[in-house]
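Worked Example 4.2. Consider the chain below.
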Amino acid sequence: MQYFILLILGFAVLVVGGEFLVKGAVGIARNLEISPLVIGMTVVSFATSAPELFVSLQAVLNGSNDIAFGNVIGSNIANITLVLGVTALIFRVKISDQTATLNYPVLLLASLIFGAVMFYFNGIPQEVGFLFIILLLLFSWLLISNSRKENLKSPPDEDEFLEEASQDSLFKSLVFLIAGILVLKFGADYLVDGTIAIAKKFEISERVIAVTVVAIGTSIPELATSIVAALKKEHNLAVGNLIGSNIFNILFILGISSLIKPLPFQIISNLDILVMTGATLLVVLSVAIGRKNNINRISGGVFILGYICYIIFLIFRG
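Applying the procedure from the previous section yields the following structure tokens:
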């Protein structure tokens, strides 16, 4: 019973830490007059990926590489199928031209590179982790450069959600940011410790718990951000948050983790990687089926149904 309490406590602490971190990150970005598009794809995405980062780092330090891999893979699957599915059910999600021409292709490329690395190296060597970080920096540069060109053509409209979320001073935003980081650290400790204990007690593989329970828990900040953005009809933030978060999960979290310690894996299934890549490809299919680059409610329902089937399959097989 105490292990489940530890797991639930970890979830709760991650939620609080994620909210603090998002609030602080957005406040800092707005005080420094960074454009809303860059905020959504970089600052907010990084902030909402912080739970995955702390959980994966803690897992690597504990020698539980399968939790680190399962957390990232499961979180990416949950972000696309569960979070984007729920968001599309609330409001038809519009895919912007920049998302279609730059952000999404980068996510698909990162997913394919990750799959190829796992296949050929049976893990992530430190050299590849360094390459992941370089690719992320290059993507961030392209994103900011493209945003500046767009701003020169036509100044962006103020983003109501970001404006409401960032009325705090720079100092107060920094306090929220630091508090969020500290809280997330404790939440990650509780979540990883509880996950390992439950896996050993019930003889369930760490992979299954990491890809399901831990992944959903660390995707809560993305879910909260995207739902609020959908309710306020902020399409760029709703979609940009998810795509940016998935890119950060692969290139930054696994890149940093492998630099700290090489990441061989033992039991992460190739099926999980294929499902992650397939879920990413589903976005293209759903946009092609929809109208005017939209992901409609039907596609959202299909995403959620697919995720439920995947979870059921994992539980019975695990």
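Residues 170-201 form the longest helix (32 residues). The two ends are 21 Å apart (CA to CA). Compare this with Example 4.1 before moving on.
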